[in-house]
Amino acid sequence: MRDHAAADAAVERACAWLATNALILDTETTGLDDDAEVVELAVIDCAGTVLLDTLVRPSGPVPAEAAAIHGITDAMLADAPTWSDIHDRFCDLVEGRQVVIYSREFDARVISQTARRYGLQAPQCFDLALDDSTVHCAMQAYAELHGEWSEEKGRYRWQKLSTAAQQQGVRVENAHRALGDCLMTLGVVRAMASGNISHPVGRIALRERSTRRTC
Length: 215
Fold this sequence. Notes:
Distance between the termini: 25 Å
Strand order of the largest sheet: 3-2-1-4-5
Largest sheet: 5 strands, mixed
Order of helices and strands: HEEEHHHEHEHEEHHH
Structural class: alpha/beta
Helix content: 40-55%
Strand content: 5-15%
Radius of gyration: 18 Å
């Protein structure tokens, strides 16, 4: 059964992100492990304004399996800035701002380990222990609102970003590129804030909740 309190809290979080014009961030990377580096970084605000959209040249070649997913090749990165080149700009951009990420733990970890590779300190809210009051996970919030329970994992099932977008009628375009994923995340957040999600079970539950608070 849907946890209405959790769903209501997810709606309120999405409303708060829009109200504070939070930043939405996404990365593409060389992989998933502890050696992975950022190869593309994008940041937008909740009005959809693009604040940062750049390729990032890593310290080594992009593995073929990663390039097959996001399409970013060594040739594309040959003249791109390194993390050292964009680090200060990125830190200045996120300082003092609320930040929303779809799959927060992964992106924050790769940003932190990329900065450390260059002997730099990631913003404190990204480094090691994530600051729940500053850096937020849209994937977790959406899972609570979508309400698909996984008995195996003992939690609400996480939805891939493109799946969440399709479920909410958000256009899926340039998936697995940083800016495209930022824009899809914004579309999902806006759908969450409306409180009228498109999952059939969710649609019934929301109609039953006539007192639901939305922004």
